[in-house]
Amino acid sequence: MKKLFLILTLSVLTTGLRAESTERKTVKTYIEILAVQRGATPTIDTGNGKYSEQYKTEEGEVIVFNTVMGAVNWFVSQGWKLESVNMSAGDDRLARMYVVSKEIPVEEAKSKEINYIKK
Questions:
Q1: Predicted pLDDT at 100
Q2: Average pLDDT over residues 110-118
Q3: Which phi and psi (to 5°) does residue 90 adopt?
Q4: What is residue 3's predicted lDDT score, i.e. its pLDDT?
Q5: Residue 57 CB burial class (10 angstroms; 0-12, 13-18, ≥19)
Q6: Phi, psi (5° rounding) for residue 67?
Q7: 46: buried, middle or exposed (CB in 10 Å: 19+, 13-18, 0-12)?
Q8: From 48, 84, 97, 107, which residue has the greatest number of CB atoms within 10 Å?
């Protein structure tokens, strides 16, 4: 009876350890997609202090978007979640800002931290 209890206890503990080790810690990261005029090429802000009209994927592919909605649709198709849509008007211009987010591993986020801090 003691052996059975010991075996059951050990199997529960090892199952718990296995489940914990397979969990990946993630953090939410954001990208802003901005268009100042209708039909303008969207500008991408990844938080590195440089607005760009192109986006470089993790695989190194450079993507240039035709329209702001093309950029939003592409990011959503890649697993990003549309978080917010903001518009502001002034000086005969309409600025549209879209924010998308994605959960990424903490290690990946930490490796990119150097890009987010102004020196």
A1: 95
A2: 63
A3: 175, 145
A4: 56
A5: exposed
A6: -140, 165
A7: middle
A8: 97
Strand pairing category for 81-90 and 93-105: antiparallel
Match 């990844």 to its residue by tokens: 46
Q: For the whole model, what pTM was predicted? A: 0.70
User: What pLDDT, on the 0 to 100 scale, is given for residue 102?
Assistant: 93
β 62-64/26-35 pair status: unpaired
Write out pLDDT tens, residues 13-63. 555 544 444 567 888 989 999 988 777 788 898 887 778 888 888 888 898
- How far apart, in Å, are the Cα atoms of 12 and each of 4, 19, 100? 12, 11, 40
Exposure b/e, 73-104, CB count within 10 A at least 16 = b: eebeeeebeeeeeeeeeeeeeeebbbbbeeee
| SS3 letters across 22-90 | HCCCEEEEEEEEEECCCCCCCEEECCCCCCECEEECCCCCEEECCCHHHHHHHHHHCCCEEEEEEEEEE
- State the Rg of the chain over Cα: 22
Phi and psi angles of residue 92, each rounded to the nearest 5 degrees, phi first: 60, 25
